[in-house]
Each structure stands twice: as structure tokens, then as C-alpha cells.
Amino acid sequence: MKLLLLLTGFFLTTVSLNLYSVPVFAAAPYAQSSISVSFDTASKKSYSITSGSDNWPVTWADDDAQYTNFGDGGGFGDSAKYSQGVAKISGGADNFTGQNLWTGNGKSYGIISVGGILYMWVCGNASDNSAYSFQKLYKSTTHGTQWAQASWQFDQSNGGNFFCPTFLQYGKDYAGGDPSYLYIYAPGIQNSTWDVQKPGYIYLMRVPKSDPMNRANYQFFTGYSGGVPQWNSNVSLKKPVFTDVANGVMRTSAVYNAGLKKYFLVTQQIKRGTGGYIGIYEAPAPWGDPNNVQNPWKTVLFANAWSVGLQGAEAKTVFWNFSNKWTSADGKNFVFVYTGADKLSTIKGTLSAGPGTATSTPAQVTPTKITLSPTIPVITGDLAKPGDANGDGKVDGLDYVIWLNNYNKSITTGAAGGDFDKNGKVDGLDYVIWLNNYNK
């Protein structure tokens, strides 16, 4: 049976469906935020001078410039092709210049300026899944023209089963940041394929900003105790600060928006290609919301990256990050820096309260119902097993069909009608509960 799922905010695809297969569509992992985002597609620019170069993480330095890293190209105007390079961006969002400073091997999605010193995480020594091989910290005291490597690295042999670490960005040269620590997010490695990693876990570590080159200084988030984040120097005890089992995670960026007093986490989800999603999440602290440890983040945006204007017909858009230098003082107007068709790209946007033009709210389109020939067990009421709607002790395709046939309805039967979180409505969050328990 072929089923076309027409749900805005869900992954749109045609799938071959049998009662015991997992449907291929997605729902946001966390409840909707009161903050929404909209993009000004007319402002979108891709800079041909950077053709062939991707990634582009940015940090705002003490000299008022932004420093960035590019991969697999010549950066600003060089005809050669480099594994990675560091460049300097000077000026405003509508009129800036770029200058190449340094080239080397590997890739980077995390660079930061603190105390006039640049630090940069390098993942692997080549492209694609080389990023899983090791994560090494570099340091520059010359504003990016020369770099020194740490004598150690994270890799899968020493508990470093994560990749492409990224720094939490604050203001100019870390202004307004934590007085003691740098914070670093890194998605977990689940397999060797260079694609979104599922299940999706993002880990958080911190290190004194006075000496991040010392491995002994690192501490890892291990969860909460009484709503207070816990830290441990043993990397094997780390726990994810962000989880999306169904949709996965990949390359990630993070910023503190001083105007809105919110932390924003941006990650790549579903897949790398044109069906890929962008997820933007917010919280009041780097580790989420300590007053809601079961759901520590809220969803600002969960959508196909092409559908919200981050790309046109081109085949690639990846790694999106907010530029704090180009964000308004009230935090509401921002510029995204990202990869568009293997070029440095920018787009302006707005963060505001209330519904926006690009949110993860499911559409009011009713999914196609399925008529079953098998006999469905009698539904007898709420069930203890999450995702088991029909009470047969299994979470399978029959339970999915019950959810689907009640989708977007207000019901009072709870889990027996597909309302697994028992909030009175059958929606995408109930689907996530079903999916996370499927075949159990």
C-alpha cells in the first residue's frame, strides 16, 4: 500500500506501508515555543567568491571582526582547494569583506574568541565520516594566522564518541558569557555513515576559559539532581543534554541571544539531502530548562530547510548559525550564516512571540485514513505500555493506525485512542511516543 502523508511540519514522503513497518515522517521532539521565527527570503544571498567552500561557523572577536572556517574550497577568492581554512569577515551584514588567513587538514564547525585568543575544534583530517575519527582543539594567539594543536584528542577509544564539537557563542570576544567556563556541544556518533545520526543525542561539556587546552580541565554534563545540572570529569558518565531519538541530529551550532535572554540550539535533522530538516530549539540555560528536566527544550522551528527559504533549487544547505554580531540589540532581528550550494550564504530573519511564517506546528490537513482487513483487538482503556493503543502488549503498526485514524482529534479515551501523553488531543507528540517505543 502506498500512502502520501500530507502534513506540514512533518517529513513529506511517499512510503510503502505495511502494518509492521515504521512510517517515515517526523514530528518535533519538544513542545512548541512561544517564540517563532520567520525568514526574509528576499534578503538571501550566496557569495560566488566562496564557491566550492562550505561550513562557515562564525565567532565575534575582540577586533570587531568575525572569524570563520571553510571546508573543501578556496574560501574567499582562492582558486585552490583546501581541506579547511580560517578566514576573517569584516564589516556589516550587507557590506562585508573576507580574507583568508590559514589552511590545513580536516573540518571545523566550532570556533570562538575569548580574551583575544581564538580556539577551534578540528574534526578528523579529511572530509565526510573522517569527522568521526577524532576531535582536536587548536589555539591561535595571532588572530587566526598561526595555530597550535593540543597534545590530546577526543576519540572513540577514550570515550569521545561524539563529533564536530561547537562552542556556545556569546557577544563580542565572549562578552556577556559565563565568567568561568566555555561550553561545547557535540552530537553523538551512532554509526559510520556520514549522515544524520539516529538516535540523536547532543552532549554538553564545559572547560575553564582560562585554559581549555588542558584535557584535565574538562567536565561533562551528567544530568540533573533536584533541577541542578551535574558535571563530572569522567567522559564515560556523560548524558545527552538534547535528545531526538526519531529524527536524529548532525552538525550543530549554539548561541546566547542577550536581547531575548534565551539560548538557541540549531541542528541538522532527518537527513543530509533535500529531505533534510533544520531544528531550532530554545531554553533558558545552556543545559535546557532545569525546571522542566523531562522536556528541557522548546521547539522554535522544525521544518524542511528548503521549505522555509534557506535554499532554492540548489542541492545543498547545511550548518546554520546565528551571527551575534549581526543580531539586533533586542535580539529580534538576526542574520543566519550558513552553507548554500557550497557557498557562504546569509539570510535575515526575525524572532518574535506568537505564530510565525515558519514554525513546526502541524498543519490542519487530516491524514488519509487506513481501512484494515485484520481484526483490531478490543480497546479497553488507557494502557501502561507507552504507544500500545490496543492493549495487546506490543507497540506495532496496529497502534500506529489507531493514532493515525484519530490524528488531530480531541478525545477522552487517552492512550486507547492514540493520545499517549494524555493531554486530550492526538497529535505529533503522541506519534513520537509511539515511534520511540515501536517494536518493543
From TrEMBL:
One of its GO terms (molecular function) is hydrolase activity, hydrolyzing O-glycosyl compounds. InterPro entries: Dockerin_1_rpt, Dockerin_dom_sf, EF_Hand_1_Ca_BS. Residues 1-26 form the signal peptide. One of its GO terms (biological process) is polysaccharide catabolic process. PROSITE patterns: EF_HAND_1. Keywords: Signal. This is Dockerin domain-containing protein.
